[in-house]
Amino acid sequence: MLAVVPIQQIGADAQEVYRRCVGGHRSSVAAAVPCATVHTMTYRLLCLDAGFTLLSPRRTLADALSSVLIDDGHTITEDEMRAAWEDADRWFWDEYHRPGNDTWSDDERINEYWRQYHSVMLDRLGVDARREMLDRIMASQFASDAWAPYDDVEPMLRAVRESGPIRIGVVSDWGSNLRGILRELELDTFFDFVLPSGAVGVAKPNPAFYRLALDEAGVEPHEALMVGDSYRADVRGAWSAGMDAVWLDRHEGMNITPAGEPAPSDVRRIRSLDELPAIIHSGGPLPRGKLHVADAPPPT
């Protein structure tokens, strides 16, 4: 598909491109802007993040911890639990966004990461983080019934499948148990492949992770679209591999943008996966911010 677009606007949303100058019916504003011919690309691969994109916890991490503490005879007030959760949440995202953090590329390191997270909460509550207690908290957190798909997930997946020949994969910073969770939720049949970082040995935002998905689907980077809730991990990671990306902003109070950073404005943002089939139908390219040195692939 071809569209005539202003040179300055190459990379803008395809619908805006079409509105401004297509087929010789250009507006008076657009007529003053030099145009070039650019291909509107059809997506052949859709990559989706898992946590807070496809899956939502049925109970919060604080609930998983609280139930174990109650079983052990500890009395924790709601205010104490909230303060502990806020401390642990800050630790989690600061560590997640730490440059060079390779935690999510190994199942054992992922497991230890979550243990440290819960230990931060327990320390704030003044409770000794015994290994046996952490084992029970982890079991509650990652049981197959601990997660549920958002209401917009299955309708979106069905609509994308019905839209034409496109492969769908999951690309997520998660342990190997993600495949079993998706199978228990009967979502696995929608996906052509599932790549948990802990199973494949590489994690976001490393572009090598996204190249694994491209190789799995047999497509070029410009034919692929990544959708996720983390601007740094999902969006900028996909951009660094040459893919298009959409930022899913569900507004759940999740602090996925590091403290002090403004909300991103250089990416296509959606509030729900209901918006995704129309984007796939329109094709790319989508808006894309500038990549920095930190986004470059690590030396090999």
Model description:
It is a single chain. By secondary structure, the protein is of the alpha/beta class. The chain folds into three domains: 38 residues, no CATH class; 158 residues, Rossmann fold, CATH 3.40.50.1000; 89 residues. The chain is 40% helix and 14% strand. It is built from twelve helices and ten strands. The protein has a six-stranded parallel beta sheet with strand order 7-6-3-8-9-10. A two-stranded antiparallel ribbon has the order 1-2. Strands 4-5 form a two-stranded antiparallel ribbon. Strand 8, helix 11 and strand 9 form a beta-alpha-beta unit. The longest helix is centred in the N-terminal third of the chain and has 19 residues. It starts with a strand and ends in an 18-residue tail after the last helix. The N terminus is likely disordered.
Q: What Rg, in angstroms, do the CA atoms define?
A: 21 Å
What is the strand arrangement across the widest sheet?
7-6-3-8-9-10
Low-confidence stretches: 1-38
Number of strands: 10
What's the CATH class of the largest domain, please? Alpha Beta
Instruction: Determine the CATH topology of the largest domain.
Output: Rossmann fold
User: What's the architecture of the largest domain in CATH terms?
Assistant: 3-Layer(aba) Sandwich
Summarize the main sheet: 6 strands, parallel
